[in-house]
Amino acid sequence: MVDTLTSPSPSMWRFHHRRWIPTLFSSYKTLFTLLWIVGFTSVFIWQHNVVEGFLIFRRPLVSRSFPQLRPFSFNLTDFGAVGDGITLNTKAFEDAVSAISKLGKRGGGQLNVPAGKWLTAPFNLTSHMTLFLAEDAVILAIDDEKYWPLMPPLPSYGYGREHGGPRYGSFIHGQHLKDIVITGHNGTINGQGQKWWKKFRQKRLNHTRGPLVQIMWSSDILISNITLRDSPFWTLHPYDCKNVTIRNMTILAPIFQAPNTDGIDPDSCEDMIIEDSYISVGDDAIAIKSGWDQYGIAYGKPSKNILIRNLVVRSMVSAGISIGSEMSGGVSNVTIENILIWKSRRAVRIKTAAGRGAYVRDIKYRNITFDNVRVGIIIKTDYNEHPDKGYNPKAFPVIRDISYRSIYGEGVRVPVRIQGSADIPVRNVSFKDMSVGIAYKKKHIFQCAYLQGRVIGSIFPAPCKNLHLYDEQGRLVRKSNSENASDIDYDI
Ligand SMILES: *[C@@H]1O[C@H](CO)[C@@H](O)[C@H](O)[C@H]1NC(C)=O
Ligand SMILES: *[C@@H]1O[C@H](CO)[C@@H](O)[C@H](O)[C@H]1NC(C)=O
Ligand SMILES: *[C@@H]1O[C@H](CO)[C@@H](O)[C@H](O)[C@H]1NC(C)=O
Ligand SMILES: *[C@@H]1O[C@H](CO)[C@@H](O)[C@H](O)[C@H]1NC(C)=O
Ligand SMILES: *[C@@H]1O[C@H](CO)[C@@H](O)[C@H](O)[C@H]1NC(C)=O
Ligand SMILES: *[C@@H]1O[C@H](CO)[C@@H](O)[C@H](O)[C@H]1NC(C)=O
Ligand SMILES: *[C@@H]1O[C@H](CO)[C@@H](O)[C@H](O)[C@H]1NC(C)=O
Ligand SMILES: *[C@@H]1O[C@H](CO)[C@@H](O)[C@H](O)[C@H]1NC(C)=O
Ligand SMILES: *[C@@H]1O[C@H](CO)[C@@H](O)[C@H](O)[C@H]1NC(C)=O
Ligand SMILES: *[C@@H]1O[C@H](CO)[C@@H](O)[C@H](O)[C@H]1NC(C)=O
Ligand SMILES: *[C@@H]1O[C@H](CO)[C@@H](O)[C@H](O)[C@H]1NC(C)=O
User: Where are the transmembrane segments (predicted)?
Assistant: First the structure.
């Protein structure tokens, strides 16, 4: 880090003191003790300086100026906003968005949010808009639900996710837009979810909670270089969108007691990249979705062509990267690579159920590391959560063409649990180059049921007998005749 270079060098300091020490003390032992004390003190002082340097580095006296990313830009304060954390700035945000909405034909406009705490009710974005958050700028969501508008349920869900009927809209919202950028110098959008989570637990809400950022039926979206935190519900929810890039983000919520605070939920989206980010939340860090049972089947819009890479994620309640369980429009062509999942309940999971219909196929996992997770790889086909009784129990999803390459880890209780069923067999799954350290038992740790597929080369732990074995050159070594055998044990 650059700032440490300006701290006094600890080795210089120690050298200076060493020169006079031998002239005063003849005993080798005393000298040694003294050197130890001097060394310890200098390390202490050095650390102290680093911490101080770090604070100075984090809070520059002169804040970085706003880059000009659009032909027109506005300062939030131009619209009368007050960043004291108390004044409600809804009108300022709405007026700013309205001003920018008139500039679309001329390249759009940028709204600069300076350092401060800008409390507001939910507001909408407009096309050709850049929302730029300065360092130490915080857009704070008002946590009184009276200010949150109700919206119709998502068509592919039929329901608010938690209650029937309408749902709360998102804090930052947009529909039918094009060319949206939300970025900054790591400013924060804070959903102040604490009251929502509490009311949800106490069953005091009559409608599904609102996401933090939800953009629907839109294209060309870039969200980067900012922090999203404490969403009432799912944090970032692109719904039926095309061409979405999410890069260099920090997404945070408490790892416990923040129900359904998924990090990013690509939902019926295509051409999407999520990369270079850190996510630690109270539910799935990422969950790729595409609608729920009969509503999702009728809406019929898949999530596809999605690349997820270079992430560090954590989820103590659910999983690092999930697909489903709502996947009734289908999910295909997803690549998930260079991911570290640490201290989590589950690492990578596909979840579905009878009634969902559609498919999950062409999913590639590559270079995934599990650091102290309970269960590593999971496919679960009986995730029986339905919107209502109107689902078709014979609508069986097709789960196939899934590859796991370069899977590493340590401290894992169950590296693999793939549970197909007679109705929903899991097909054409392949494993290559896997080495996962086990934390607990040595038996029943590669659990399979109704799984057809192959292992290429040797992997650790040894695979279940459901899989065919091939050598590195692709020659069949052992053909399995027990693809439908079942060894699933939820007790470990
Ligand atoms: C925005 O307005 C505030 C308050 O008037 C001011 O302190 C700040 O310098 C302005 N920033 C820019 C980039 O104009
Ligand atoms: C925000 O957009 C939604 C959906 O287009 C709309 O129903 C709502 O009235 C808008 N809210 C405001 C304040 O413009
Ligand atoms: C990531 O965002 C931070 C601010 O949040 C910025 O300082 C850093 O340069 C960005 N990194 C890249 C690679 O864009
Ligand atoms: C951005 O802010 C978050 C929250 O304060 C912090 O955890 C993260 O390290 C910051 N990112 C950068 C690149 O400074
Ligand atoms: C929920 O509905 C009940 C009964 O209609 C009402 O008393 C209560 O105020 C409502 N709660 C909220 C948060 O709207
Ligand atoms: C995707 O969106 C970005 C803006 O985020 C834009 O620069 C790019 O041209 C779009 N790509 C396509 C293929 O439309
Ligand atoms: C993120 O911030 C860095 C450093 O300011 C900048 O170079 C980069 O272009 C930004 N990235 C995006 C995608 O906005
Ligand atoms: C699969 O998705 C990637 C983006 O991750 C895209 O580049 C590629 O063209 C897609 N493949 C097909 C067959 O659509
Ligand atoms: C594998 O992923 C890790 C992050 O978990 C990353 O540090 C490493 O560079 C990746 N390796 C390759 C070969 O991409
Ligand atoms: C099996 O899945 C792989 C992708 O993992 C795909 O390339 C291949 O075509 C599939 N094989 C069959 C027989 O469907
Ligand atoms: C395994 O079960 C699947 C689906 O129930 C069936 O299609 C397949 O024939 C069975 N395989 C064997 C070897 O019994």
Answer: 20-46
